[in-house]
Structure to design on (339 residues):
């Protein structure tokens, strides 16, 4: 009996030892795989940051580090600088942090600290601060498939270098979403309680604006590729559709629009939009106070829309845009600036 008991204990001990060895081997293989993945990620990120990206920009991730072992993997930078010589843009930003689950490295989240400074060769500089900026991204080395960006408590200062005048934009909440849709590109955005302070340090006489849009850009999915496609990046000559555009000035002053649009080679818009407008007089009054130099244009547009709505203060209408000229039927009611 004693011999039989010792044999059973020996067999159990062997199984435990074997299990322990297998665990150690598995841990070693997993750790090696994680380290290999981190090395490959570092190399590929370095290539993308060195100008091999859709923007053709050089990006410096200061104090680059790959962290997250054992269950996550992510890129960390103490600060980020950008040099886009093609577009004449340079920028400096705060700390960057990202993370992805090891079993789904193509889907990751990231966040960045402020402040941010951006300088443009066009004669403008931008500075931005925020309470929180974070994003969710689905991408691989062949490009981006979808991404979402959310900001809270955003403040942006836009300065004209020539005269030092600064305009300030504030927004309580903002979102931007983008995704591939076959060969097309879908984009959507939302802002809440957005206000503007003009260079003369007086608020633009518009109430805080909330707005959203949902659009499709035909044939522009290549914008998300990691290598620059100059044809896809060209805005002029492109076509798309506004699935829904909403602008809300509060107090019932809401505008909703949808329909196809195209951008000409000169930057002018053409297309047809279905427009729904509530509180025509409220819109006219708000815009007249904010832009008094265009009072006559707003008066004429309000008269035409009120007539089309059968004398009512709200209604819907089909607008025609032809090279920037906005018309109701054959009656022009305004001109949009070229992009």
């Amino acid at each position: 009996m004693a011999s039989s008991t010792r044999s059973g204990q020996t067999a159990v001990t062997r199984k435990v030892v074997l299990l322990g060895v297998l665990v150690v081997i598995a841990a070693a293989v997993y750790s090696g795989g994680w380290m290999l993945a981190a090395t490959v990620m570092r190399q590929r990120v370095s290539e993308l940051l060195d100008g091999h990206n859709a923007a053709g920009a050089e990006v410096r991730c200061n104090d680059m580090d790959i962290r997250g072992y054992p269950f996550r993997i992510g890129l960390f930078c103490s600060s980020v600088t950008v040099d886009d010589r093609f577009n004449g843009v340079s920028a400096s930003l705060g700390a960057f942090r990202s993370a992805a689950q090891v079993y789904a490295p193509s889907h990751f989240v990231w966040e960045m600290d402020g402040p941010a400074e951006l300088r443009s060769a066009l004669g403008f500089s931008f500075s931005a601060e925020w309470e929180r900026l974070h994003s969710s991204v689905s991408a691989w080395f062949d490009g981006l498939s979808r991404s979402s960006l959310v900001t809270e408590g955003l403040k942006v200062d836009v300065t004209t270098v020539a005269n030092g005048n600064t305009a300030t934009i504030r927004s309580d909440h903002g979102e931007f979403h983008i995704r591939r849709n076959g060969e097309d590109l879908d984009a959507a955005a939302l802002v809440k309680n957005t206000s503007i302070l003009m260079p003369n340090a007086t608020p633009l006489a518009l109430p805080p604006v909330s707005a959203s849009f949902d659009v499709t850009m035909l044939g522009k999915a290549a914008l998300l590729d990691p290598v620059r496609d100059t044809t896809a990046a060209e805005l002029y000559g492109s076509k798309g559709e506004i699935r829904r555009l909403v602008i809300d000035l509060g107090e019932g002053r809401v505008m909703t629009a949808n329909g196809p649009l195209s951008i000409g080679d000169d930057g002018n818009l053409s297309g047809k939009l279905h427009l729904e407008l509530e509180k025509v007089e409220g819109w006219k009054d708000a815009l007249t106070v904010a832009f008094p130099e265009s009072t006559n244009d707003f008066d004429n547009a309000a008269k035409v829309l009120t007539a089309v709505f059968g004398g009512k203060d709200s209604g819907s209408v089909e607008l025609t845009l032809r090279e920037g000229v906005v018309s109701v039927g054959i009656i022009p009611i305004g001109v949009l600036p070229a992009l």
